[in-house]
Structures are given as structure tokens and as C-alpha cells.
Amino acid sequence: MQEERRDAVAFTVDGTGDATTIDIAVNGRPLADLAAEVERAYDRSLAGAYGGLSPYVVRSIHHYLGRPRATWFEDGDTVLLGCDCGEWGCWPLTAKVVVMHDTVRWSGFRTGHRDWDLGDLGPFEFARDDYERALFALGPHLTG
After folding, report:
1. Following DSSP, what letter does each residue of the chain receive, concatenated?
2. CA 15 to each of CA 56, 59, 101: distance values in angstroms, whole numbers, following the listed order
3. Does the structure show a pLDDT above 90 at 139?
4. How far apart are CA 3 and CA 69, in angstroms?
5. Which candidate, 84, 90, 12, places its Cα nearest to that of 48?
6. Angle at the Cα of 36 (from 126 to 111), degrees rounded to 5?
7. What residues have CB less than 8 Å from 19, skipping those under 6 apart?
8. What would you report as the CA-atom Rg of the chain, rounded to the nearest whole angstrom?
9. Which of 50, 143, 56, 134 is closest to 95 using CA atoms?
10. Which residues contact residue 29 at a Cβ distance below 8 angstroms, ignoring those fewer than 6 apart?
11. CB contact at 8 A, 95 and 77
């Protein structure tokens, strides 16, 4: 029986004070870089122009567990990255985050201001225990 491949996620905290952001890497590569590869077909100057979210925006690990605090389309999407200018709503990257018994899946990636087809980004599926372990490392940086 062939074992299913799972993706790996890392949440890291960058900066200090008001400039602190939560950055995301998937399979060892920044999520913004993965998005840029797909977005270059639409606009090379905007492709991958994302930055991490402020812990103040995220507030809790539940944001990444299907109960988003920041949403753009308000249809179940979760903002994973904001604009590289520091304002998450300026250029958000969203995905549908589905938490299942053993896995967490990110799919349906979209950007907030362009009708670009990001279907080649993801989907990503993470082992839930590894995903939650990565999130728990953010605990000290989140407020509730």
C-alpha cells in the first residue's frame, strides 16, 4: 500500500514589536514565492507581493484552523498572507482551510483584488498533528 504524501508547513515569527509578522513556508519554500510562480503569468510586478500577517490580526491559532479572524471574500476563506506593505487588506492571499480528523487542507487560493486563476497553487494537505505542532510554536506571539 502506497503512503499518501503530505505537505509540510512552517509558521515563523519575524521582526519585533509592531513590525512582527507571521510568515508561512510550505515544503520549505515561502508561500509568497509559491504564489509568485503562478501569478507571474498575470502580472510580473505584482506576483508574490505578499507579507506575513501581524499577530494582532491573527490573534489565535484558530485563525489557521478553519475559524478565520481575517477573511476577504467572507465565504469561508482564510487570509494566509497580506500585502508586503504591511496592510493585510491591500493585497490578501486567501485559501479555504478545511480541518479534518487527520489532515488540514488548503485549497482554492485567491487574491483579493484580481480575478486570477490560482488553481495551480496547491492544494496542500498537511498531517493534522504536524500542522498543529507548527501552530503551537506561535502561541507566545498570539493574544487569545
Report:
1. -PPPP-B-EEEEEESSGGG-EEEEEETTEEHHHHHHHHHTTT-TTTTT-EEPBPHHHH-SGGGGTT--S--SSSSSEEEEEEETTS-GGGS-EEEEEEE-SSEEEEEEEEETT-----TTS--EEEEHHHHHHHHHTTGGG---
2. 13, 17, 34
3. no
4. 34
5. 84
6. 75
7. 86
8. 14
9. 50
10. none
11. yes
The residues pairing with 25 across neighbouring beta strands, listed in sequence order, are 10, 30
Burial class (CB in 10 A: 0-12, 13-18, 19+), 112: middle
DSSP string, 56-92: HHH-SGGGGTT--S--SSSSSEEEEEEETTS-GGGS-
**Could you report the per-residue pLDDT of 53-112, keeping only the tens digit for each?**
999 999 999 999 999 999 999 999 999 999 998 889 999 999 999 999 999 999 999 998
Q: Give me the sheet containing 9-14, strands edge to edge.
A: 9-14, 21-26, 29-30
Cell numbers placing 2: 502506497
